[in-house]
Amino acid sequence: MFRPISDELRQATSHDGSPSVRAVGFTFDGRRMTARAGDTVAAALLVNGVAACRETPVSAARRGPYCLMGVCFDCLVVIDGVGNRQACLTPLREGMAVETQHGARDIGALERDE
Ligand code: FES
Prior knowledge:
Elements lengths: L6 H4 L12 E6 L2 E6 L4 H7 L6 E2 L6 E2 L12 E4 L2 E5 L10 E4 L8 H5 L1
Parallel strand pairs: 1-7
Antiparallel strand pairs: 1-2, 3-4, 5-6, 5-7
This protein binds FE2/S2 (inorganic) cluster.
């Protein structure tokens, strides 16, 4: 469940402890945002003031990153057109298109074949 800190994040702090952070650009629901290289998508959303990134299937209640360690699944988002991505476990990359996940997940061909 736990992952080692990424090399990119490790290098985000210089030897004297001062930050030397590279900014990464991405979009959330079409809005341009920036965050630190090495951040997860969830951290990037939170630092940009995005508290909700999905809606529940039944009541459309808004949910956002909660546990930040891959347990609660309240951080599901669509990234570059692929749904059900856990934002807290996905490293942010330059140019990512992150979108709110609305409602039930699409399980693709498996659901349509039945
Ligand atoms: S915030 Fe809980 S699984 Fe991502």
